[in-house]
Fold this sequence. Notes:
This protein is of the alpha/beta class. It has 6 helices and 11 strands.
Amino acid sequence: MVALHTPEYRDGHGFIAEVIRTNRLKTADIRVEEGAVSIAVPIETPPEKIDELLSAKRQWIKHKITLHKEMSPASDKQFISGEAFAYLGRNYRLKVERGSFAPVRLVNGRLLVTVPEDGNQPHIIRNAVVRWYKRQAEQKLTEKVKRFAPIVGVLPSKVSVKTFKSRWGSCTAKGDLEFNWQIMMAPNRMVDYVVIHELCHLLRHDHSPEFWQEMLRVMPDYQQCREWLKLNAQQLVF
């Protein structure tokens, strides 16, 4: 599916839906993934029609969101103003404002999000924060892959961002690289390590001595990074 415009958002009263306009669909496609709602629609679909579609599916959407909340591990995050979130090893304070929904932006050292008066629910703010991390991950990880791939001596097929429960990245048999967006909470050098690790898997799909020799060649300090991630992995979740 090819998105042709910058995503827009619709207030579903209790949830925020991301709108993706595309030339690849003739009908709407509503999804609830990891508690986040998205609706892909043909390019010319008017906002009023999108609101109608979301309203018709409101009970189903709310049910899916509730299931996700029940299945999610307990988090100590409350998603309120003043709470700290790590990004590339630095902490940024969350600032929640009231008004028409606006996605998270990094402004003056703060993660600023605007939510409707009836949108002051932790899951709405959490989804906005996760979307921000994923956008940053797509940009930064793609840049790092382009930077390190020639040094490793490989040419990956595709780079994508996913949610993994117990790993930072994956290398498929087709040569696609997949990364866990949560690695963006780690210091920059740890992100380098994860990118280089998956790139080296394009040469060797195992953790043999030869694989670690490739890691050492490209990243002499890889062992310190590997150890840091082992020790701090539990802090990089919410």
